[in-house]
Automatic annotation (TrEMBL), chains A, B:
The keyword DNA-binding applies. Gene3D superfamilies: Ribonuclease H-like superfamily/Ribonuclease H. The RuvA-RuvB-RuvC complex processes Holliday junction (HJ) DNA during genetic recombination and DNA repair. Endonuclease that resolves HJ intermediates. Cleaves cruciform DNA by making single-stranded nicks across the HJ at symmetrical positions within the homologous arms, yielding a 5'-phosphate and a 3'-hydroxyl group; requires a central core of homology in the junction. The consensus cleavage sequence is 5'-(A/T)TT(C/G)-3'. Cleavage occurs on the 3'-side of the TT dinucleotide at the point of strand exchange. Residues 159-179 are annotated as: Disordered. It comes from Paeniglutamicibacter kerguelensis. It is found in: Cytoplasm. Belongs to the RuvC family. Its EC number is 3.1.21.10. It holds the Pfam family RuvC. This is Crossover junction endodeoxyribonuclease RuvC. CDD domains: RuvC. Its cofactor is Mg(2+). Residues 159-175 have a biased composition (Low complexity).
């Protein structure tokens, strides 16, 4: 699956293979950068062309994307939101399901705590993917973390449901094991904490 | 030229022909709507397909778009920003210049005051376009107002410069008439007022 950390200056892309036993392997990683001194339309076109090529090259079964919040990072959030819209449409045009995960969900899934910092996330991403060091820059590590998060949630709870959660909350928890329910409860608690 | 009032639930599109003497004529107007109960990726795809078809149908020389601010309308701004990113890329893919205008610039250009309300803008749009009533819904009138604003600014100051202002401030005011400089000063003042 493909994880995307959307951004206008740096858009992180990662392809991670997640096996049913949760073993995760980094297949490819890339950062699409657009020069801040280019006009906005050219910058967004760089992102659009880059994500199109990436999806055509890797043909992922799902695109996991960071959910963008308007109250965070006000100075860059508009460009990030514009880039995320472009990524979502690129996937939708290819009938690739899109799943959105909050930063807190990603931190909780990868490190066990929704309040971990970037360094801790990068360190755990490296460990999970059996790499000597985290993918660099941080946008690449974040994209890998998104793919891992989605792969693990999908593996536990069914990827169809996870993919369909692009704009709706996860459905009921019946039919899950006690461990799965406990994890959901822990994640819900993590989500209620204000994220970065 | 095409004016776009970006939005996820309603995206207003207008084609306005502006003559060198500032006479403006509405050629076509449309609102692309996406159902709020659809998944986000399907909603953005509806917008993307709609703007693609509109640009291919009308082949405008420029797309004038409302500049989205992160501090406004927090509940809907992310969808609006995502839609605007999609519109900008659709234009860039066709080598159509994109010009961004703030709501205050649009109000000032159309009504003479940067603090006018939606009703006043709609009323002046109808008057300028010689219509019995404003295009409806308001998103369509706003799209027409954006096209008028850009056409008038372009007519006064050169459309190439206006089109290139997508991500950079307008360049110097040398070579302008006193009336043009006065207008620029008035607009700069209007811009400094907090917009809606």
């Amino acid at each position: 699956m493909v994880g995307v950390d959307p951004g206008l200056t740096r858009c992180g892309l990662a392809v991670v293979d997640v096996e049913p036993n949760r073993r995760a392997t980094l297949i490819d990683v890339k950062v699409i950068g657009s020069e801040p001194d280019l006009p906005l339309d050219r910058r967004l076109l760089v992102i659009a062309d880059g994500i199109d090529a990436w999806l055509d090259q890797h043909k992922p079964d799902v695109v996991a994307l960071e959910r963008v919040f308007s109250q965070l990072n006000v100075s860059t959030v508009m460009g990030t939101a514009q880039a995320s819209g472009i990524v979502i449409v690129a996937a939708a045009r290819r009938d690739i399901p899109v799943a959105l995960h909050t930063p807190t969900e990603v931190k909780a899934a990868v490190t066990g705590s929704g309040q971990s910092n970037k360094q801790a996330v990068g360190k755990m991403v490296a460990k999970i993917l059996r790499l000597d060091e985290p993918p660099s820059p941080a946008d690449a590590a974040d994209a890998a973390a998104l793919a891992i998060t989605h792969g693990w949630r999908g593996a536990a709870f069914g990827s169809a449901g996870a993919a369909a959660s692009a704009s709706s909350p996860r459905s009921g928890t019946s039919g899950l094991t006690p461990a799965q329910r406990a994890w959901i409860a822990a994640e819900a608690k993590a989500r209620s904490v204000k994220s970065r």
